[in-house]
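TA notes, week 10

Several of you asked for a full example with nothing omitted. So below is the full record: structure tokens for the whole chain, then the designed sequence directly under it. When grading your own attempts, check the secondary structure regions first.
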């Protein structure tokens, strides 16, 4: 539901604090004083979780069609990237010392895996909605309607669909497809 409520000053200050702490992070330096990235590997526990996720994710990928399989191959790399991001935001929010944060921990990896699984479910949902891999008449009409809508900058009435595609001669079919 829409709300006119504003973000509280407390929440805004907490967010500002996190962003400022993240911006305060600096590169490491090599022997010549040149900036170099700071490595933040996975803790042994986080790596164990990632390996289990990776193997299960790849078993699932082997059962998918081409489109979803391509999405799955990208999603597996998101888990450690999101875990790093979550670890750094936790560092900034919770205020623990960066010196004691020598690795991405299990809690950050757990949160990242939950996010990746959510993205995977959304990819399945959208793929099913678009009818990818489905050769039914309804899916074919849906793809034709999507193509027509793209040619109309994403906005299309059922009458415009009827005029732009011969497959949509009947108003009720065009309206139902949209």
């Amino acid at each position: 539901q829409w709300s006119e409520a504003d973000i509280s000053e407390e929440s805004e200050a907490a967010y500002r604090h996190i962003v400022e702490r993240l911006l305060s992070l600096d590169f490491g330096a090599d022997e010549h004083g040149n900036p170099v990235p700071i490595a933040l590997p996975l803790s042994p526990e986080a790596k164990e979780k990632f390996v289990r996720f990776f193997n299960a994710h790849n078993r699932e990928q082997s059962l998918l069609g081409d489109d979803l399989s391509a999405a799955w191959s990208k999603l597996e790399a998101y888990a450690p990237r999101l875990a790093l991001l979550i670890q750094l935001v936790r560092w900034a929010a919770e205020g623990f010392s960066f010196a004691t944060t020598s690795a991405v921990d299990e809690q950050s990896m757990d949160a990242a895996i939950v996010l990746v699984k959510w993205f995977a479910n959304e990819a399945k949902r959208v793929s099913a909605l678009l009818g990818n891999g489905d050769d039914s008449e309804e899916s074919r009409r849906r793809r034709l309607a999507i193509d027509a809508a793209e040619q109309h900058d994403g906005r299309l009435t059922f009458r415009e669909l009827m005029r732009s595609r011969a497959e949509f001669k009947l108003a009720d079919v065009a309206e139902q497809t949209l």
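Residues 148 and 160 are 9 Å apart (CA to CA). Use that as a sanity check on your answer.
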